[in-house]
Fold each of these.
Amino acid sequence: MRLYIGNSNQFIEDTIQNQIADKLKINFFDYYRHNPSPSEINSWRNSLNRMCTLIQYSKLTDNGIILEYQLPLTSKRLDFLITGRDKNNQDSAIIVELKQWDVCKPSNAINEVLTYVGGNNRDVLHPSVQVNRYQLYLEDTHTAFYEESCIKLSSCAYLHNYSAVPDDALYDPKFTSVLKESPLFTADEVNPLRNYLVERVGNGNGSDILGRIENSDYRPSKKLMEHVGSTIRGKSQYVLLDEQLVVYDSVLASVKEGFTDKKKTVFIIKGGPGTGKSVIAINLMADLLLSGYNSHYATGSKAFTETLREILGNRSAVQFKYFNSYMQCKRDDIDVLICDEAHRLRKTSANRFTKAEYRTNLAQVEEIINAAKVSVFFIDDKQLVKPDEIGSMSYIKMNAENKLCKVKEFELEAQFRCNGSDGFVNWINNTLGIEKTANVLFNTEESGFDFRIVDSPELLEKMIMEKVNQNQTARLMAGFCWEWSNSPNSDGTLKEDVVIGNFRRPWNARPGMPGLAKGIPSASLWAYAPNGVNQVGCIYTAQGFEFDYAGVIFGNDLTYDFNQQKWIGHTENSHDKTVRGSKEHFVSLVKNTYRVLLSRGMKGCYVYFMDKETEMFFKSRMEK
């Protein structure tokens, strides 16, 4: 999708006649069925006038122009793309990111600067980083830019209202590399920008090159598949055992069958914490990519997805997405769509921030099934921790059968976490009243899993820090029993929200929190970044991850009453607004929360109980 396409002379004419913004507005409405915002129209008018002047000044009269070009399978649109032949007569194209900024400040985030957008100062991607990612995305996913005799793609940013100052944040040393790949031009650098354009597209013939782009397909390149697949394959810990391998082999076999059968195939793989769902999913992703299949890995967790992208490198973002990424996807665009943590599926992909043009009438699970020839759902019904998460085996199966798909179900039982102790997870389920199991009592010595109840949060933290100092992975987590500050202190440090007597510690950073001090990880990287150990993690940053040792503060939002012999929920002690408003579901959602937190440890779990009666109940279920 693009809102405007034509040759450079037509673009100049439309702009001079003050028609360019109106044409974009009309095409926007035709495609999205509503009008763009006034601010977007003004942005088009201002920035494109500047580009028109630049194109005239550069004498680029035989070139192709695309405006507001939507990147395949995303909601992101390129501002400006110009085509032509370079000085060596090779077909070329340049992406130009247009910004109306006039000032920015430094940010401690690695790829960001601080500027005033959306009514506030916010961390935003450096323009060169942003446009460089667009370039990589197209080079990895659009056949016109990677197949034989491909179009050579370049990118740059143009800040036409911006005048650089000494020690400007835009030229911080951390951006040196990306500025070489995707240079940035300010208002004072019209001549360097003209030279950049002329060198790359100055020999014209741009309309023919536009046709090549328009007539080429979206398909991830083999180069990208090898990059992601080989990176995952290099991780020695991703080894499949027993029933994990059975599931893996079944999916691979079905993939080949599925492409010779018009009927879609849906896999539903159920397993509790530590049964290796993500291990299977990542192995499948690696080998499918290396075999040439267009495969995607999606979750409903920003923390989990962003951590995978961080580990595998930024180019993997093309294949690692979210459940709501498929609203605009065509039928069977993707060969295999692997959905990890599928219990986090929601009724719809749209929310109050979703633009009208991206909304569909389909349920989120239907969008996913529609997008892929083979869909694979990894799920744990008992990890539902928010009322708007509706993923379950029965729900997915019902929707798949309604779509006349072949449905294949598996259940994983072997425990690869909690030191391989099925008994510990079953005991947690039993003790929390989630599920009756044979494991009424738990014996640490017999199980080999180091479970301990401690007397204070200070001791709990000390034990976790000791494990970290021994080169073990460990995190401190808690129930959602304290406010979560929206902003850091003035110096960028986090506010100490979690307070128990003299114990005061910060939650992990909120998603998108601006102005963080250097060394404080973003919310999505709390579980992975070494400095995450200095904050207390909540359910939304811990779910999906595992550590050698888990430290859990069991709060007052859920307590056990010996007199009534049942678990009691206390909404007044919860600061999770969504869960607090879930009425009759509150107790079950908080139970699931603590089940998740208590099952994050591979080797051990240490717990501090704020309510002593609850602590006594847990101790009564333990053998000495």
Note: The CA atoms of residues 327 and 360 lie 6 Å apart.
Amino acid sequence: MANSPKHEKGRVTRRDFLKYGAGAAIGAGMVPFLRHLPAAASTPKDTLVVLISDVPNSMDIHRPGTNRPGYQSAINFYDRLLTYGRKTLPDGTLSYDYTKLEPELAESWEIARDGSHVTFKLRKDAKFHDGAPVTAHDVKWSFDRAVSVGGFPTIQMKAGAMEKPDQFVAVDDHTFRVKVTRKSKLMLPDLAVPVAVVINSKLAKKHATEKDPWALEYLHKNSAGGGPYQLERWDPGRQAVYARFDGWKSGPLPAIRRAIVREVPNEATRRALIVRGDADLSFDIAPKDAKELLADPKLKVVGTPIENCIHVLCLNLKFKPFDDVRVRQAVAYAVPYEQIFKVAAYERGVKLWGAKSGKPSATDWPQPFPYETDLDKAKFLLKEAGLANGFESTLSFNLGLAYWSEPAALLIQEGLGKVGIKLQIEKIPGANWRTKALIEKALPVHLENFGGWLNYPEYYFFWCYQSGRLFNSSNYNNAEVNKLVDETLDAEVGSPGYEEKIKKFLQIGMQEVPRIPLYQPYLEVAMQKNVADYEFWFHRQLVVKKLKKA
């Protein structure tokens, strides 16, 4: 075909990728989606057609190994005790408000005078999707489950000082209590994150077994919530259909009665569908598309910097020679930051390199690291490490995030090659990424992205720098960092020593660079002009209940 990109062993070369971009992949593969997607113009006012790129691998956020796209079930099918408020950003767009906690299932809450417990009064009219009443016993079972299944959900609850089932008490049907074993500024905010869902325990227990007491297999494919939507249909790898739960009482009844969430991994296909009007909203689009679609008068594009979030290059210390800090610093000096920002981010993001000092003057996070592209420094450090001739390794990226990670990987491969570091690129399907990168921590060099739900630097370091944490895919372990994070995680902002400890672990992270920041990304969303009230949330999943169609 004329003007098509050349392929080498089935792969697009860097030159061709940068020349043709995502559009190189469009073609016959898009036709099935065009056949089956309803045209937005003919879609009822209360139906929303949504496009997403990555594939949920489970409907249960507590299930070990559930990927980030899978969190959409927790957001839309379940309630939490608390939620966050709303604010308007300087550009006029809407966002959640981290500073404002509001009721969801809990009508009110009270902290004991001695700080020993927090008591929640549940709304008495709340029901699950099957009509069963929501009780404090369901809340206890759900929280017991979250702290018991292990992995990500258990550690997330621990971040909010909730670690053991005996902390949770159903006082009566509509009164729930959390015993405080250690005072933490994160406890109440942690009850509004996706993990703290309230599950229909009566339904779940019907599907539990001796080997599966938490009904992980059942909830993997089914929802058992009482949130604004219920799962009508799920075809893994293709679509999920949400049906409004008309009995929802934890907020105003949503305007959208039915949401059809289509999984379209190819960015060019998604762009074509939203431009044609065959979908109402395309979620988490590529920065290239966002930048170009801003000029389309038929569409609205919203880009929001993702709080506490960084695109990073991770170096795994369990693989030599990355256990040598000089090698890690050499890599940091060889990364072509400006090119990555232009080609992968299309300059839609926040720069995180080029700081004048490696000693932070503030506790802001994210903040730039003291590295920039300097090949002479990189070569000097490699020589100091006894690797003047370089070395070979493998650079892996998540295919589900290829819109930024593939061009970044190609540019990093080229940049590091200039100092003798030869990288073979490995593409890993999105459904397998979490297992390989985060659970097994088996990738020597990889591109990763983490956004901390609770907006503090110590929370980010808790997950990404403390030894043994899920998102510490670099296998980094520094006793001083572990201690400093533990000491600041629960401490109140502004308490004695708090700021100095934050600056200290930031400084160590900058010096030892197990994670090399590239840039802070935007969450980009394109939608038809008649879609209103889109709201950015820290968890990077679409909150359907807030949306409306004119």
Note: DSSP finds 18 helices and 23 strands in the chain.
